[in-house]
Amino acid sequence: MRLIRLSESVIRRTCRCFSSDQTAVSSTISVTQKQNEVFDREKERQLSLVKAIEKVHVKHLGPEDECSLMMNKYLSTPYHVAMHLGEPYCKHSGIAVVNGSLWHMLQPLQEDCELSFVRFKDDKPFEVNKAFWRSCSHLMGAVLQKAFKEEVLVEPVRTPFIPLSAGCFAYDVNIPFKWEPTREELVILSREAYVIMKSKSNFERLEVRPDVAMEIFEDNVYKKHFVEQLQSKGLNRVTLFRLGDFIDISRGPMMTNTDFFSPHRFVFTCVHSIDDYLRPKNKLLRFQGVALPSDFDTHHTTWDPILQRAKKPVHHDLVPFQTKDDGDAQTDRQIEES
Predict the structure, then answer these.
(1) Average pLDDT over every residue of 187-192
(2) What is the pTM of this model?
């Protein structure tokens, strides 16, 4: 049995927190398996809709290597374009811009387009930095989903709005017991992130109908609430991202894969409780962290102040749809752009 990868004291405390009723509830591993089965089924269904290969004209814009390519409609992605241009484009292009819209590198092209790439060392890296921060939160959620023993039902809640000035990213979860992790336990969580990063796993993107999203998240009241909010605003598509077996709602774009993270510069910095906006008597746990893209390196004397700033707890209003430009999954801007 896969035990929580933390200390024995937490394992014992976790075991005590379960009653006979709680153990009857779906476990994280069964919920995750079911979510991925629905995700894979929908992904295969969408691919089956491509009955014939059609071509689209792609014009690459940039300071270098301007060219025109014929790519496969609904199959080729900006990453495939990058492969034509050379390894540096694949390695350093965090996101793409397609006909003026931000575009995930693994998102299929749908029409004739003008395409450019955004890299961390560009003159204006703001959007790729946001995508990196968003991807960090998603990776953090993936770690937390598998960090506890199998019978602990971890409910991923969301990527909260964290102002860039705070110097950190975060992910909120609901777990069925009170927990104040030690410094050692935070280090172990950071090591779990390292394991995922070394796998070079892709951030997969999939747009689905609300009913499919509701099926995927039928065991998660927070995700169902968000999908219902999308439906109430008349939207008929929900954008999902998957890393490994962790699936979440996000407008994206995100990084291509986990190779964009600097392995030893992804750190869980602190944990604190916040109010639960759906269950007034409950408390959620907010995990915070800080990271660097693999394109950059820093000396420990520079890294330490960055790390210390990210350890300061950030309390922010958790109510979805209230913030107009927070860059996470649950905002009006995301709804408008889905």
Answers:
(1) 95
(2) 0.87
